[in-house]
Amino acid sequence: MLSILLRFPVIILLFHGFCWSEEGPNYSFMHQATSAPRISYYDYIVIGGGTAGCPLAATLSQNATVLLLERGGSPYGNPNITHLSAFGRALSDLSHSSPSQRFISEDGVINARARVLGGGSCINAGFYSRASADYVRAAGWDARLVNESYRWVEKVVAFQPPMQQWQSAVRDGLLEAGVEPNNGFTYEHLVGTKVGGTIFDGEGRRHTAADLLKYANPKRLTVMLHASVHKILFRTKGRKRAIAHGVVFRDSLGHKHKAYLNRGPKNEIILSAGALGSPQLLMLSGLGPADHLKAHNISIVLDQPLVGQGMSDNPMNAIFVPSPSPVEVSLIQVVGITTFGSYIEAASGENFAGGTTQRDFGMFSPKIGQLSTVPPKQRTEEALAQAIKSMESLEPAVFRGGFILEKITGPISTGHLALRNKNPNDNPSVTFNYFTHPQDLRRCVRGLQLIENVVESRAFSPFRYDYLSLPALLNMTAAAPVNLLPRHANVSTSLEQFCRDTVMTIWHYHGGCRMGRVVDAEYRVRGVDALRVVDGSTFHYSPGTNPQATVMMLGRYMGVRILSERLERSRRN
Ligand SMILES: Cc1cc2nc3c(=O)[nH]c(=O)nc-3n(C[C@H](O)[C@H](O)[C@H](O)COP(=O)(O)OP(=O)(O)OC[C@H]3O[C@@H](n4cnc5c(N)ncnc54)[C@H](O)[C@@H]3O)c2cc1C
Ligand SMILES: *[C@@H]1O[C@H](CO)[C@@H](O)[C@H](O)[C@H]1NC(C)=O
Ligand SMILES: *[C@@H]1O[C@H](CO)[C@@H](O)[C@H](O)[C@H]1NC(C)=O
Ligand SMILES: *[C@@H]1O[C@H](CO)[C@@H](O)[C@H](O)[C@H]1NC(C)=O
Ligand SMILES: *[C@@H]1O[C@H](CO)[C@@H](O)[C@H](O)[C@H]1NC(C)=O
Ligand SMILES: *[C@@H]1O[C@H](CO)[C@@H](O)[C@H](O)[C@H]1NC(C)=O
Ligand SMILES: *[C@@H]1O[C@H](CO)[C@@H](O)[C@H](O)[C@H]1NC(C)=O
Ligand SMILES: *[C@@H]1O[C@H](CO)[C@@H](O)[C@H](O)[C@H]1NC(C)=O
C-alpha cells in the first residue's frame, strides 16, 4: 500500500504536461517553428527528433533545458502513421509533406528516410529486437545501463505480437531447417528461432520514439516542428579548437531563427539527424573532407576526411511464396538467427499501402520503391511505374502468400556520402556498394539456401504449392510479374547473381559518423568541442537483427551519461 502511495506522485509528475486524446498526446511543449523566437538559449540543443533524438531530449530535460529541432511534423493524428494496416502509405507518399523522404542510392536501390517527429519509428515495419551481448561489448557500452535503457524504452513502445498460422509455419519451418533452439518470444538476440517484439500493440496501433517524450520534464523541454537546421555555428576566436555554440534553423515559411547554448562548460549541441542527415549537416557546417567542402564553397571548420565515409546498408533479398491456403496480414514477427551471419524474417498477406482500395505487397510493393524484378541500375521511374501497373492488374488470389526474406549481418561492404548541394532538405548522394565484399555475398547465398529449406519443410507445407521448386519460385517472373526474378538468363543457375540482381533495402542503413573515426567512445565529435552525434550514423554494423530498439536505447543511454557527466562537473566546481 505504502509503495503504491509513494509511486503515485511520480506517475503524476511523469504524465503532467500533456493530455492524451484519441489522436495521441498533445504535448504542451510541442510547437510549430514559425512561433519560435528569432534568438533563444538552452543548455542542450538536439538536432533531429527521430528514433534516437526523442529519448535523448526527454532524458536531458530531466535536469537541464533542452531544445529539440525536428524538420518534420507531428506523427499524432496522422492516419498514414498510426496503424499497422497503413504500413507503406507514408512511404508511397512522395509529397514534401510526407513523413517519408525517398532517396535513391548511387547503387540504384530505392530507399527512404524519415521526416517526422519520432523519425524512422513512425514509418518502419515495427519489429523490435535488442542487440546481442557481443555487440554491446564490442561497442564498449556499460551493459547494466544498456539493460536499464532498453527496459525504459520497452515500458512505453514494445509489445508481443499475436502469432497466427503463417508466421507460426515460418517459425516451425526454421526449426525444422535446423535454426535451433526455439527461443520463444524474446527481445534478446540469441542464435536460434524466436518471436521478436513489435512497436504495434494488440490493436495494431503504432507506438513510436515520439511517445518517449512523455518521460520529459515539460517545463524544460521545447520541441519545434518543421524546424529545419541549416547549420551548426562554431566559435574559433582565441581558441585552439572550434567550439559549437549555436544553430541556424528555418521554419516552414523559410524564416530564419537562431538558437544558442547557455554559457556553461557542460552545455552541448547533439546531432541526431540520422545516417544521412548527420554527416550531411556536419559537412554543411564545415566539418568534412576539405576538398569536397571547398568544391561547395563551404568554409572549413575542420578538415575531417572520415565524415560521410563508411556508409553501409544491409542488403535484403526475398522470395515470394504463393500459398494455396489463406494467410494473415503480418509484418515481421519471427526471425531465424543463424550462425553464418544471415537473418531470416517474413511478412505475409495483401496490404493496401497505396492509400487506395488496390491491393499490394506491403513491405515488397513497388509503390514504396521495392523493385527487384530488374537489377538496381535499371530501376528507373518507368520501370517502377510499369511494376505498379502490373501489380494492379493481378488477380486477388496472387496476393495470397508471403515473402521470406534474408538480411545479412554487418555488412562488411561500405560506401560513402557526398553533398549534392547546400540545401539540407535535399538528399545527399549516397553509395552503399552492396556485395562488394565476398563474405557479404556468401552470407546472402547461404540465407537463400536456408529459405529454400524453410519453404520445403513439413511445417510450411500448407502454405506452398508442391510443384513449385525453388528454381521455379526464382524463375516465376513470366507467370506472374510479382516474382523477384530479374529477366535474366543466369538467375536460376546462380544464387550469387540472384543476390546482386534482386537486392533491395531493409532500410537499416547506417554509418557516416562512425565511432572511433568521426566520434570518440563518448560520441563526441573529434577535433571540436561541445558537439556530439548520437544516432545510427555512429554504428559500424547494424545492431541485432533490426536496429530500432538499440537506436532508442542509445538515445536514453547517452542522455543518462551526459547528465551524470554534468552532475559530476557541477560537484567538482
Ligand atoms: C521503411 C522502414 C522500415 C524499417 N523497419 C524496421 C523494423 O521493422 N525494425 C527496426 O528495428 N528497424 C526498422 N527500420 C530502421 C529504423 O527505423 C532506423 O534504423 C532508425 O529509425 C534510425 O534512427 P535514427 O535516430 O538514426 O534516424 P531517424 O529516426 O531517421 O531520425 C533522424 C531525424 O532527424 C530529422 N532531421 C534530419 N535532418 C534534419 C535537419 N537538418 N534539421 C532538423 N531535423 C532533421 C529527420 O526528420 C528525422 O526525424 C526501418 C526503417 C524504415 C525507413
Ligand atoms: C494542443 O494544445 C494546445 C495548447 O496547449 C492547443 O492550442 C491545441 O489546440 C491543442 N491541439 C489539439 C489537437 O488538441
Ligand atoms: C539531476 O540532478 C540532481 C542534482 O542536481 C541529481 O540528484 C539527479 O540524480 C539528477 N537526475 C538525473 C536523471 O541525472
Ligand atoms: C497519406 O498518404 C497518401 C498516399 O499514400 C496521400 O495521398 C495522403 O495525402 C496522405 N495523408 C496524409 C494525412 O498525409
Ligand atoms: C543484461 O540483460 C541480459 C539479458 O536479459 C543478461 O543476460 C545480462 O546479464 C544483463 N547484463 C547486466 C550487466 O545486467
Ligand atoms: C563557388 O564560388 C565561386 C566564386 O564565388 C563561384 O564561381 C562558384 O560557382 C561557386 N561554386 C559553388 C558550387 O557554389
Ligand atoms: C524458367 O523459365 C524459363 C522461361 O520462362 C523456362 O524455359 C524454364 O523451364 C524455367 N525453369 C524452371 C526451373 O521453372
Ligand atoms: C551469365 O554468366 C556468365 C558466366 O558466369 C557470364 O559470362 C555472363 O555475362 C552472364 N550473363 C549475364 C546476362 O549476366
Automatic annotation (TrEMBL):
SUPFAM superfamilies per record: FAD-linked reductases, C-terminal domain (SSF54373), FAD/NAD(P)-binding domain (SSF51905)
Keywords tagged on the record: Disulfide bond, FAD, Flavoprotein, Signal
Cofactor(s) needed for function: FAD
Cleavable signal peptide: 1-21
Annotated binding of FAD, by residue: V116, V229, W507, H508, G536, P547, Q548
GO molecular function, one term: flavin adenine dinucleotide binding
Intrachain S-S bonds: C444-C499
InterPro entries listed in its UniProt record: FAD/NAD-bd_sf, GMC_Oxidoreductase-Related, GMC_OxRdtase, GMC_OxRdtase_N, GMC_OxRtase_C
Glucose-methanol-choline oxidoreductase N-terminal domain boundaries: 274-288
Family: Belongs to the GMC oxidoreductase family.
Protein name from the UniProt record: Protein HOTHEAD
Organism the protein comes from: Sesamum indicum
Gene this protein is translated from: LOC105157364
